[in-house]
Amino acid sequence: MSSGRPTAVVIAPGRGSYTAAEQGALRRHDADPELRDLAQGWIATFDAERESAGLPLLRDLDQPPFRPATHLKGENASALIYATSFLDSLALRAHFDIVGVGGNSLGWYSALGVAGALPPEHAHRLIQTMARLQAGVAGGQILYPRIDESTWLPDAELEAALEGTLHAVRASHGDEALARSIELGGYAVLAGTEAGIQAALATLPPLERGAKKYPLRLAMHGPFHTSLLREVSARALEELAELPWSAPELPLVDGRGFLWSPWSADPQALCEYTLGHQVTETFDYSATVRVLLREFAPDVVILLGPGNPLGGPTAQVLLREGWRGMRTRADFDAVQKSERKALVSYGLEAERARVALLPR
Asked: Picking from 239-243, 255-259, 349-353, which range would have the lowest pLDDT averaged per residue?
């Protein structure tokens, strides 16, 4: 039976979403006494495991000063991002019926905790372990646009530049030197060896869009979602063999666009995908969003915090789908100015305030 509340799909962000502007994110629900106590209880649980591993505590990291060398390190950034996303999802349950869950890259691990495929503390353990295992792998990631800046429509020349760069770098440096890491709406994320990354940076046509210059190397990122992480995958399957996987409590959509249903998901298959294919193959975030839209037709798509790194890429998928009649960036802007937004970025203070006014 329907609760009468609006339906929502929620999506968790990946690495790079916790910045200096996000400090204090773990305490932003303190105005609600019930939620505050719940949130602080979970933070204490996560911090107990971090303390036993000799890692900085989340409650300390989530306050100034922001030190990039510390806060962007995988074992710290990943846990901060997961904790923020998870606590945001708890807050949203008071206002929305969450009908589907997804995530981008690291956000897939967060989604497992949000959807109940892993108990929250075990999702934290998964995230902490994967960050540690990936830390020693050389290589990196590059972000590059493939859409027109003003319309957000596909740009054939930019896509051709991406494909040409992939072929050229592989021909000169080997097949593992560069690969498509993430399909990210109107952007592509390439990943590879250090030599492959340097060659791609030198080959892709330079672009300036606002304050950003492309190709953009993502700080302290490894060659995620490529065959260079085969050993990481094998070690993860060994170290995390005892994680208590279950069918999710909420429907999950993964980085292939595959739907894991609460009624039919195989926990062992979910484990094998998460620690196998998901680690070493391209993560198709665009497919994640597309399937969430088509399967659940939500009233709104909500991007969990921290930050808003998925705002543009998600909007671009909405346009490709013609969601609510939107085909261009102008269409999207008009819908977002209306009372019935298509996309809510919960990491933004103004949008959290708007959600807080909704009936509980």
From this structure: 349-353
